[in-house]
Amino acid sequence: MPQESILIAVQMLCSWPDSSDEELIHKLVGAGMERGHATRLILFIPCVYARLILKSLGVQFSEKFVRSYGGGRFSKERTLASETVWLEVSEFAHINISALSSQERMLVAGRSPEFGVINQALNSGANASDMVLSHLVVFWPEEQPR
Q1: Is 125 left (phi over 0), alpha (psi -120 to 50) or beta?
Q2: Does residue 108 sit within a domain?
Q3: HSE-up of residue 115 (Cα within 13 Å, Cβ side)
């Protein structure tokens, strides 16, 4: 089931690139997925794909993240490996990234906040191999922190 749900989410990210995270989560829930799982997929898939693409340029990433709940509220810092969905998406992406066209990879990875920051830095003349990112911050649309 995890592989199937990841594939469905990747296909949605490619098919509806202009949809908000919340709209995509809603579509996945409408397809029968549990909301928390759908949320994690939509938030983590772009980050995993962006990291796969950008690590080859020498960018160094933190293995930690925090959730932003809005209103200045943040979770405690956690390891990405503490999220089962992160691990499942990472495994899936390593095996299946080549199944996407370069345009589809960019549609997925381009949703990652890290991708946007790195792209801006590269466009300003920064050297990718000099980049070391701090923890990932993801906006978490769920009401209750876990």
Answers
A1: left
A2: yes
A3: 19
**Range 3-6 contact pairs with CB under 8 angstroms and sequence separation of 24 or more:** 3/88, 3/92, 5/33, 5/37, 5/41, 6/41, 6/45, 6/88, 6/89, 6/92
Q: What is the mean pLDDT of the chain?
A: 92
Distance (Å, rounded) from C-alpha 64 to C-alpha 54? Answer: 17
pLDDT for 143 beyond 70: no
90 inside domain = yes
Give exposure, 85-119, as e/b (b: 16+ Cβ within 10 Å): bbebbbebbeeebeebeeebbbbbbbbbebbeebe
Domain range holding 19? 2-139
**Cα distances (Å, whole numbers) of residue 22 to 11, 26, 100, 133, 139:** 16, 6, 23, 26, 11
Segment 33-46, tens digit of pLDDT:
999 999 999 999 99
Q: How many domains does the chain have?
A: 1
Entry pTM: 0.91
3-state secondary structure 108-132: HHCCCHHHHHHHHHHHCCCCHHHCE
